[in-house]
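This entry is listed below:
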Amino acid sequence: MKKHFDKKRPSWDEYFIGIAELVSKRSTCLRRNVGAIIVKDKRILATGYNGAPREIAHCSETGCIREKLKIPSGERHELCRGLHAEQNAFLQAALHGTSLKDSTIYSTTQPCIICAKMIINAGIKEIVIKGDYPDRMSKDFLREAKVKVRRME
C-alpha cells in the first residue's frame, strides 16, 4: 500500500506550542512577546497574549513604563500597562464560561509568580513552556502544588 502522506506531522506539544508562538505575535508589549493557549483533550479552550487591557492605549503608543523606570524583568509586575498572556487566556475563558480544571497551558515563556498562583488555583494540571523567565518563586510554587512543568527545546 502506497503512503499518501510522507510529511512528518508535528507532535501535539509541537502543534500547541507553535500556536502559542503564533498567538504571541499579537502582543503589544515592547519588551517581550508572549503567547499562551489553554488546552484540554486536544481542544483549545482559550488563548492570550501580553498587552494592555481593551480600551487602554498600548505601550507602542505610550512607551514602556518599565523601561522608563528601569525595572528588571521578573520584578514589580504591578508597574506595567499590560496583562500577561496567561492572565488574558484565563480572562478569555472566564468571559466565555469555560472551566480550566485539569487542562494544560502552553506558554512561550515560563509563568511569573502571579500567573503561577492563578494556574494553581484554576486547577490547571500541567504547563508546557518554551522559554525561561527569571522567577524562582514561580518554579518553587508550581513544584510545591505538584503542577507538572515541561520545557520544550
Summary: The chain has a mean pLDDT of 94. The longest strand covers residues 43-49.
